[in-house]
Specification:
about 400 residues; alpha/beta; Aspartate Aminotransferase, domain 1; 3-stranded antiparallel sheet; 14 helices; globular; disordered C terminus; binds pyridoxal-5'-phosphate
Amino acid sequence: MKRIYMDYAATTPMLPEVAAAMQPYFSHKFGNPSSIHSMGQEASDAVEVARGQVASLIACRPEDIVFTGGGTEADNHAIKGVCLAGRERGNHIITTAIEHHAVLYTCNFMNGVGFDVTVAPVDKYGMVDPDDIRKAITAKTLLVSVMHANNEVGAIQPIEEIARITRRAGVYFHVDAVQTAGHLPIDVDGMGIDLLSASAHKLYGPKGVGMLYIRPGTRIVPLLHGGEQENERRAGTENVAGIAGFGRAAEIALAEMAKEAARLSGYRDRLIDSVLGRVGDSYLNGHRTSRLPNNTNFSFDFIEGEAIIMYLDADGICASTGSACSSASSEPSHVLMALGIPVERARGSVRFTLGRWTSEEDINKVVEALPRIVEKLRAMSPLVKEKCGWINYL
Ligand SMILES: *Cc1c(COP(=O)(O)O)cnc(C)c1O
């Protein structure tokens, strides 16, 4: 059976061109970029070409990019690095309730070592109110961290407005752009961003490589010590093949961004309209328009998201409940909770995220399968019977 992959927010397949760009660094071009000889130079050149390609994606200078071991490391570096460098000046950080755990858990860790953390709320569409950020800033605030777009519900945040507030207050602004880099236009100067995280495997590159943009002059310390690599900002021999792949993936993403966003947002809107039109007691989670071109997230009353995913999987459709990170636990997603969605409804949520290999036919298959699956599960659900008063217990 041909499988339909609709979990591009969890990870993306690598493009063949990306694998091809990596291949030489797994074989004959194996030099260490720190070596002075020609084989070292060859590897170092590959890293610098990739730095330029990744810089183009966010319109910054190549030298302001630090390659990391992924989005999680970039988030950790930004938050811990700014906090540790600034602890003489302040001890307060501000973030939001819908951040990825890479940000939230890092803030929580900093809280454990003496930093105060303010977690700004979101509205029922998953949008941060810049005014909440403004009100939270104190003389002790070092950093504000707000994601560009949410990985579960796709809500795109008012980054420029928040940046105007942080700029005026003299507070650093970190943006987790893992879901948007390579998918939406980013201009770190135009948008007023001081630190930005991205990850290769969310833009058709390899897993285990990412980057942190650091605005020149930002007071930040390294996360890893032990070598002079990455301009003394990230010790350890570079993941040359991974970085080369990241660069090539960034180059292709930039070239195809506008076309791909237009194509996917068309599919997204058709999927949303069809599902809400065909399935009763169904809801769209997130904002209708300020939304990632490839994201849909629905709740279906009376049934469990896990059960829907299993039935979809049996039909060859790979989707996700809330988010990949929380699917191992039965706790409802912290993001859906932050949107104020009732727990029972949040449990019945499914995310379909589209991408490069999504076709019109795939959308049709989901639109056909989903109402059938929801109906079958509801027929078995004790919740729906309770609601309709079909069974009187005791
Ligand atoms: C995937 C993701 C991360 C983590 O990136 P990794 O490269 O998988 O470590 C961080 N933030 C967001 C918003 C993500 O979607």
